[in-house]
Amino acid sequence: MKSYQEMNEFLGLVKGGRINPGLTGMERLLQKLGNPHDHLKIIHIAGTNGKGSTSAFIQSVLLQSVYSAGSFTSPFLNSVNEHIQFNGESISESDFLRVLNDMKSVMDDEDRTLTEFEAVTAAALYYFGAVAKPDFCIIEAGMGGRWDSTNVVSPILSVITNVGMDHCGFLGNTLQEIAAEKAGIIKSGVHAVAGYTSSEALAVIRQQAEAKQAPLFTWGDDYSAVRTKDISGGQTFTYRSLYSIEGQNYSVSMLGNHQIRNAALALMVLENLQQRFLLNISSKNKAEGLKLAFVPGRFEQMSDHPLVFIDGAHNPEGAAALKNTLKENFISKKIHVIFAVLADKEKEEMLSHLYSAASTLTFTDFEHPRAGSMKEMYEKSSFPFKRYKKDWKAAIAESVESASEDEVIIITGSLYFIAEVRRFLKDFSLYN
């Protein structure tokens, strides 16, 4: 392959493969590639929400501490190479093509049953193990954990951010069932850290950790954080843990109490690694790394005048976090929400959270094979201050042009939608 077009055609062919529970296909391909991931120091992260932000916090602190770091995250916003990063930069075109060509050279017809995500996961592990060779790798599960393509790794630490109702058709219809899938990343004897989550989910995670004799560190028992105040461009919090009993003050640029929890989880991960691997990470490194961490599309400010934010709140827990963030930061302003989501999401529960924060709600459409009928959702909605606008670009333009200084525009829903919106707003004349 000599171009991105050929690369995308190759991935598109793989995307057409069947989805079968199990890791046999991944293990077979990686074995052909020489199991390049076996010697990597991997932090494996699963969870319903917060994986990307937690990964970003960990990576940022490691880079401030002069450790090299690879990260594999999903989904991407613009191009597939965003899945794979080394030292905060997406894999280059030349390296990605090199990796895919090496993979293609060992693949046979049996490997063609792999999905696109499995192929990109394999590409990431091969790139990190055979090309970039970072000091640490942060590998984010795509969906679930037990049968996720990333669960071929042997991590030095397993992390579960939280458990919520998402991907129920694949993972189960109760928190306990979904928690069991997420906890499937816990390995025998390997330390694990759990983030802020429900008692029902935590009970399942504890059970799995005990069965695997894996030391488990949890929010509340072993670490915690309390928001202290808002600052220009962010918020501050006090962090305490079994390693930092006296408490440490930190700040983050990303808004929302959930981001403080994500930052605290990242700190607990880093402290655990410091104790076990004698890492040289100073308090200054942590403070600078946390402050610099940023995730595109997660309550990202796109404009000052008027205030415009985009947020990939693509499930009920994400919508709840968005609601809380809006109430914490913009209680005195009118909130205009523009919303589009995939058909297979828990839409009613998502909307119930948005109703309690929004002054107005615009339902709009976007192009995606799994996109929901937003007109149908609009017609069924009981929210009194609603409208339907088929053209999402027109919906945004109209909202921006009519917004006053006491109003905030929030564009939210599917991350696929947010990716399109972000590209549009970057080119939109008001944002230049």
TrEMBL record:
Residues 297-414 form the Mur ligase C-terminal domain. Its cofactor is Mg(2+). GO terms for molecular function: ATP binding; dihydrofolate synthase activity; metal ion binding; tetrahydrofolylpolyglutamate synthase activity. It holds the Pfam family Mur_ligase_M. Residues 45-269 form the Mur ligase central domain. It catalyses: (6S)-5,6,7,8-tetrahydrofolyl-(gamma-L-Glu)(n) + L-glutamate + ATP = (6S)-5,6,7,8-tetrahydrofolyl-(gamma-L-Glu)(n+1) + ADP + phosphate + H(+). Keywords: ATP-binding, Ligase, Magnesium, Metal-binding, Nucleotide-binding. Its EC number is 6.3.2.17. This is tetrahydrofolate synthase. GO terms for cellular component: cytoplasm. Belongs to the folylpolyglutamate synthase family.
